[in-house]
Amino acid sequence: MTIYDIARIAGVSASTVSRVLNGRPGISAETRNRILSITQASGFELSEAARGLAKKSSMLIGILVSDIRNQHYTNGAYVMVEEFQKNGYCSIILNTGSDDESRVNAVRMLASRRVDGAVFIGSSFSSESMASAVATYMPSTPIVMENGVLTLDNVYSVIADDEGGLRAAVDYLYGKGRRHFSYVNANDTPSNRMKREGVEGAIAAHGLECRFLECEDSFDGGYEATNRILSEGRTDAILYSMDILAAGGVRALSDHGISVPDDVAVFGVDNSIYSVISRPSISSVDTNLSRMSSQCVRTLEDAMSGRPAEKMAELPYELVIRESTPR
Amino acid sequence: MTIYDIARIAGVSASTVSRVLNGRPGISAETRNRILSITQASGFELSEAARGLAKKSSMLIGILVSDIRNQHYTNGAYVMVEEFQKNGYCSIILNTGSDDESRVNAVRMLASRRVDGAVFIGSSFSSESMASAVATYMPSTPIVMENGVLTLDNVYSVIADDEGGLRAAVDYLYGKGRRHFSYVNANDTPSNRMKREGVEGAIAAHGLECRFLECEDSFDGGYEATNRILSEGRTDAILYSMDILAAGGVRALSDHGISVPDDVAVFGVDNSIYSVISRPSISSVDTNLSRMSSQCVRTLEDAMSGRPAEKMAELPYELVIRESTPR
DNA sequence: TTGTATGCGTTATCAG
DNA sequence: CTGATAACGCATACAA
User: Fold this and answer.
1) Which residue of A has its CA nearest to B62?
2) pLDDT for residue A182 is more than 80
3) Cβ of residue B22 near strand D, that is under 7 Å?
4) Domains of chain A (ranges plus CATH)?
5) β-strand A283-286 against A318-320: which pairing, if any?
6) CA nearest A171: which of A265, A35, A247, A92?
């Protein structure tokens, strides 16, 4: 079924059908109604692909997610999907692994779909290979990076103050008298490096020391890292780069009969449902993902419609204090 | 940049470029290499929209999600996205509210994109209005419903044995000596009705009674419903239609100083991360979402490629026993 | 108010 | 092995 079929049935030309279906003026009420009723009866919808070809606009937004297992990212993606949908855009979501090749492939897919704009979610997209992929395959498509940076004309950034957030968390615990810090970090991303720098900076400012550990990006990863901490020496404050790790940590502490926050205080990052569900509930650095996501949408829509768009927006963090830290 | 531009630079016709870029045989190695190097240097990608127009295939899959806040669904969506991506398909994810109008609109969007196939995630799509929307706008596009049913020729189903799962959970608790049951149900969906029927059936079979409560689909909803239960009388076993409710429930019980599972046993549904993180961890009915999702992909790909596809597949449940129920 | 012709970027058929 | 040419479904400038 095409507009030509509708046209034939209605006894008019295809352009007339096109005009009616696009709500353009200059059509007699009679013809309009005839065409409309035929269209509705047949359940016909204009082909967005053909329309996009003719209008040079796909009404498609590409969303790249670096790690699907991180619900932090998927939540952000959904905020965007919803907001774009309000404005008539469809979102295509691609999950790129962490290897360069599949990430570049994802960019090529977006290019072949001729997306009107794109959002890259996660700091791990701040890489050389991404920069060159964008430069070669999408040199002029507006792109917004959530918590990432790429120094290209068509790329905009909305970033979180990860460093400041972690620094504040350390300061908070220091203010409560904690002096023996540990920091558990998941995978090595630019964002996690900033968090670590925040911790290091605050620790140094107080003239303290801190043990740094790496672990897998999961509940179990946090659990095991915490066991390692407990087997190695004294600690009265543990910070985790993500809530899910902290959830594992709280569980490990509890399994060892250690009181949280009396013996050991715990801080997470993300202010996610994990921090709420855990027992005790976990104090967390909130980088305000949903606000960041909304900002991404706004920036991208500005850029797509030629309005001046904010090249680099940094959103403030917030400390959410729960049961895992002393009052 | 189009294949005509590439053709002009290479000094050949557009058809030759098309052949090379599609890896078709019958081109001299020399011309092929010339075209390939020009293409790579320019970062050109074939337009999927134009290609789709000519080939009558969009290589697009539509995914409808009923409720974005339910991570159960989004997890399923991502399994699918990943699997489809492996086969060259792009997924467009639309979140329909719960009202009929926006759901029908979502179907129309899929129709206008000419998706090659679609998956509807969630039992709430089993409705009259959905059936008629599909019949009018996508009468011949293969569609798979995850945990839903629509009696149309082009619609396939992969469903969970919700009823059996809940029946088994009640039986399990009965076997541990529990006699005073409560059941907390979130929103009214076909799936949740099946779960409730499972509970009712098992309760009746044992000649018992059960208190039924409704609540919001959230941690807080489960928390408050549980408070209501505790204020109203005696209970030694509470089942929740979703883990997130059970997580709220466990927290409420704990806040009241009630021992889980000694005083009250708790059962959830979904076997999600929530059931793992809670303390005590929560026994849960696993309807095996990731297997369901994989099955959806397989069925849809069968249907799209004309192979015989399973019209209705029911997957078995599994009880995952954790700390919230007696051993 | 409506119709005709053309272009959008690609594939496919048919010649050469 | 390669090149014209039509077709895919729609929008739009131009004519009538």
Assistant:
1) A92
2) yes
3) no
4) 3-54 (1.10.260.40), 60-160+289-316 (3.40.50.2300), 162-286 (3.40.50.2300)
5) antiparallel
6) A265
Are the Cβ atoms of B277 and A274 closer than 8 angstroms? yes
Report d(CA B76, CA A10) in Å as an integer. Answer: 44
Q: Give buried/exposed letters for A71-95 (b at 16+ CB in 10 A, else e).
A: bbbbbbbbbbbbbbbeeebbbbbbb
Q: How much is the CA Rg of chain B, to the nearest whole Å?
A: 25
The Cα B83–Cα B289 span in angstroms is 14
B46 touches strand C (CB under 7 A): yes
Q: Which pair of structure tokens corresponds to residue B92?
A: 């467009």
| Secondary structure in 3-state letters for B7-21 | HHHHCCCHHHHHHHH
For the packed helices A3-10 and A14-21, what is the interaxial angle rounded to 10 degrees?
110
Whole-number Å distance, CA B169 to C1' C10? Answer: 57
- pLDDT value at position A78? 83
pTM: 0.92
Percent of chain A with pLDDT strictly greater than 70 = 99
Option in B47, B71, B81 nearest A95 (CB): B81
Return the DSSP state at B123: G
Give the pLDDT score at B72.
Answer: 84
- Helix, strand, coil: what percent of chain A each, to 5? 50, 15, 35
Contacts of B150 (CB under 8 A, 6+ apart): B125, B126, B130, B131, B134, B143, B157
* CA dist B242 → B76, B173, B316 (Å): 15, 17, 17
Taking the C-alpha atoms of residue B283 and residue A204, their distance in angstroms, rounded to an integer, is: 45
- C-alpha to C-alpha distance for A115 and A109, rounded to whole angstroms: 9
Which chain A residues touch B if contact means CB-CB below 8 Å?
43, 45-50, 52-53, 58, 60, 68, 71, 74, 78, 81-82, 85, 90-95, 108-109, 111-114, 136-137, 139, 219, 244, 247, 251, 254, 273-274, 276-279
A56 contact to strand C (CB, 7 A limit): yes
Question: Quick one: which residue's CA is nearest to C3's C1'?
Answer: A13
- The answer on pLDDT for B69 being more than 90 is no
Q: What average pLDDT score do residues B120-129 get? A: 94
Band of the pLDDT at A68, cuts 50, 70, 90? low
Phi-psi region of A270 (alpha: psi -120 to 50; beta: other; left: phi over 0): left
Tokens standing for residue B300: 């849809």
Q: How far is CA B50 from CA A15, A48, A113, B2, in A?
A: 20, 11, 10, 11
Q: Please state the separation of Cα B171 from the chain's center in Å.
A: 27
Interface residues 55-114 of B with strand C (CB < 7 Å): 55
In this predicted model, what pLDDT tens digit does every residue of B130-176 receive, in sequence order?
999 999 999 999 999 999 999 999 999 999 999 999 999 999 999 99
Strand D nucleotides where any atom sits below 7 Å of a protein CB: 1-5, 7-13
Task: Determine if strand D comes within 7 Å of the CB of A22.
Answer: yes
Alpha helices in B256-288 (DSSP H): 273-277
Contact assessment for residue A5 and residue A14, using Cβ atoms and an 8 Å cutoff: no
Distance B46 CA to D16 C1' (A): 39
CB-CB contact of B237 with B226 (8 Å): no
Which residue of A lies nearest to B46 if distances are taken between CA atoms? Answer: A112
Find and give the residue nearest to C1, measured CA to C1': A27
